[in-house]
Amino acid sequence: MELLAPAGTMENFMAALEAGADAIYLGGKVFNARSHAGNFDYDELREALRLAHILQVGIYVTVNILVGDRESKALAEHLRELERIGVDGIIVQDLGVARIARQVAPTLELHGSTQMTATNLETVQFLERLGFTRVVLSRELSLDEIRHICEHAKAEIEVFIHGALCISYSGQCLMSSFIGGRSGNRGSCAQPCRLPYQLVTLDGEQITHDKETYIMSPKDLNYSAYMKELIEAGVASFKVEGRMKKVSYVHEVIGTYRTIIDRSGQATEADFTRLEEGFNRGFSTAYLENNGSKSMMTISAPNHLGKYLGEGQVKGRMLVLRTKEAVAEGDLLKVIAHTGDVHYITVTADMTFDRNIYRIPLAETISAGKVYRASQGGYTKQRGLKDFTRKYKSYMFLHGEEGSTVSLTMMLDSGQTVTVTDEYVLQMANHKPTSVEKITEQLGRLGNTLFDLDHVTVPEGSFMWPSSVLNSLRRHAVEAMEEFLIEQYVASWEARKANLPTGMELLGDMTKTVGQVLGFTQAHALESNTKQLEILVDSLEGLQQAVMTPVDRIVFGDPLHRIPVAYPVYEEVVQICREANKEIIFSTPRVIKDNESTTFRDMVNHMVEANPDGIRVHFLGALEVLHQLGYTGVVEGDTGLQTFNSHTLGILNDLGFSTVNVSLEATLHQMNTMASKNIMPIGAIVQGRVELMISEYCPISSFAGTGYKRGCPLVCTKQDYALQDRKGELFPIYTDPFCRTHIMNSRELDMKSYIDDLRRSGLQRLVIDGRQRSPKWIANEVSMYHQLLEGTVKAPSKEGATHITRGHFFKGILGES
């Protein structure tokens, strides 16, 4: 059982050590998902590893971003260096990164990042097959779902217990990327979800009140009250978010959870207060209790709240606050007025106090409201770690007889012992022997080490112990003990690894083996210069229109409507397409949780029985389900797999995929690079509204319904809704049969003007997303692309087009075109 702390700087790293972390995760200067944190160069990383391993603390380095082919060489060198300096594991999102790691740094443990969207047991088990020894679960799982996975997984399970919460499933969010060009999958998320939005109908009616502005900004996770249950569930690692937080946050939050874990998960009110003052936007247990309601949202203010003190009344230029909490000069108070306005007040010496009532002078008139202490006077400074206290208690024993060389034994409270010698020949003192106090003073100069001296034992006799000899013995004893402790840590780590899933082979060999076991049929029949036109639809009405168009392939499923597809429809869809001589592929949902496993298996089983030309998946666990159902047909990959480089493409090929839609964040240049490897045919979405987010939270039920997902009257089936930002842009909202929210881009992806580039590209499938579109729209778009590919019509002008986007086809997240 491990308490895992964040560290964005060396100062934060020391705070995490100080506070009692069992392991620390941090990023290098490159290839990590917190590019705006300070991060660690290799020298800092070596020093961090030395200190951590002396204290038996693990270090995991984040390599949790999507990586382009052009970065492969630099990535390989980075991974080799991480292996050389002895990091304990790497946290990865990109399967291509995992493959390169196995090829160039095979001893590094692979931990699956939360960016891999591991939401079910099948995905965890599939990652086990590929050699991952730990998986970080998605933060959307309930306690029962976490427990179920822990009970059946071989890999260690890591769970976020505290800190900021993404409103979208991690690894599936494109909002920051498409709106502002800063990708969360590259560590540069601009957090557009924390900006103001209104819920509106597509008819123009505003649903939310004017002060309900931050409806997509979630409160922070706080699982402190559930630590006992999570420990009993079998969670191996308890992770705290916060690599970009202050030192005080790291020290306070890690210290609090250390105390809670040491009490076997029992939390107190005092613990909660400490966590409040570390940092909070308000706290929530989010989905741990199957909650997706507006109670988990900040709504009025998306930043740090602090400790709630009470209701404040305003009388003239005076804030009157009744509270049992102590308020002191220098405290920064935050007042959230009933009007929704936010005010900050620094408490001055003019404040008066009488019987739990504080009267605090105001510089300007404000409105009454809830009062929070955002920070205490001197609070941050008090958390500066001047004197490191997490040290070993040590005992030193000097040895020697007159005329012989001397030695020093150093022993720790926990029993570890080392002995060092010196060439000095011990002599009797001519005049004044060295006192025990002097010896203790010299040996106790442990300064900037991780040891404190508790007691010294000195041989009896009037001996002369030169300071230089004592200093030398002390230095060498400390060095020997540090080396001993590091070796002890490495040995215990290796013993631990022996009980984890195997998979240290090259990931290429591993995936080929797994692919052979799965036994899917691979269809790589397309010529490189062939272009197939494909459309994705999610209704029978859309399908019936699509079969009348010149489209080559139809993909049916992954619906953006709340009402589930009736299972007999799958057979009807296949029949319609076969009669029209159209290739038909079924698409499975992007996200499935364990409590939906039975429904998902029934759905997939009916897809299999309908005998389509192939089945398309968004997550690796779906392969496990297909295999268990005995399916051996064609399997295709969709954008949820985040195929961003040829290394990932190679893994998917080894696993038995026949084709894949590449990441929506890849440029056309990157697509051509992937295609040039001739690994498998690839496709890309070229037309339609891009899905920016998939979320367990539902703004529609929260503000247009009852406020809760449970018992929701399905208002989403009666009206179309959207998010409206400050610029008036509308982002359509859809819900799927599993009651998840899908937020679409306000601007349509449209690549018709660049048909010549697409025709010359290595793409073999051009995909139109026709979900939730009218039959007329489907007919027009397919017809237009068909004519463009045939050369019978001229491409629209590249200039002057309004309210459309070219996505990342020419401006990527790597800064390339």
How do the helices and strands line up, and which of them pair or pack?
Layout: E1 2-7, H1 10-19, E2 23-27, H2 42-54, E3 58-63, H3 72-85, E4 89-92, H4 95-104, E5 110-112, H5 121-129, E6 134-136, H6 143-152, E7 156-163, H7 175-180, E8 198-201, E9 214-218, E10 220-222, H8 227-233, E11 237-240, H9 247-262, H10 269-278, E12 283-284, E13 297-299, E14 307-315, E15 318-322, E16 332-337, E17 342-346, E18 352-354, E19 357-361, E20 369-375, H11 379-382, E21 392-399, E22 405-412, E23 417-425, E24 427-428, H12 436-443, E25 451-457, E26 463-464, H13 467-497, H14 507-518, E27 532-537, H15 540-546, E28 553-557, H16 568-579, E29 583-587, H17 597-609, E30 614-617, H18 621-628, E31 635-637, H19 646-654, E32 657-661, H20 668-676, E33 682-688, E34 691-695, H21 699-703, E35 721-724, E36 730-735, E37 741-744, E38 748-750, H22 755-760, E39 765-769, H23 775-790, E40 804-805
Parallel strand pairs: 1-2, 1-11, 2-3, 3-4, 4-5, 5-6, 6-7, 7-11, 10-12, 21-25, 27-28, 27-39, 28-29, 29-30, 30-31, 31-32, 32-33, 33-39, 38-40
Antiparallel strand pairs: 7-10, 8-35, 9-13, 14-15, 14-20, 15-19, 16-17, 16-20, 18-19, 21-22, 22-23, 24-26, 33-38, 34-37, 35-36, 36-37
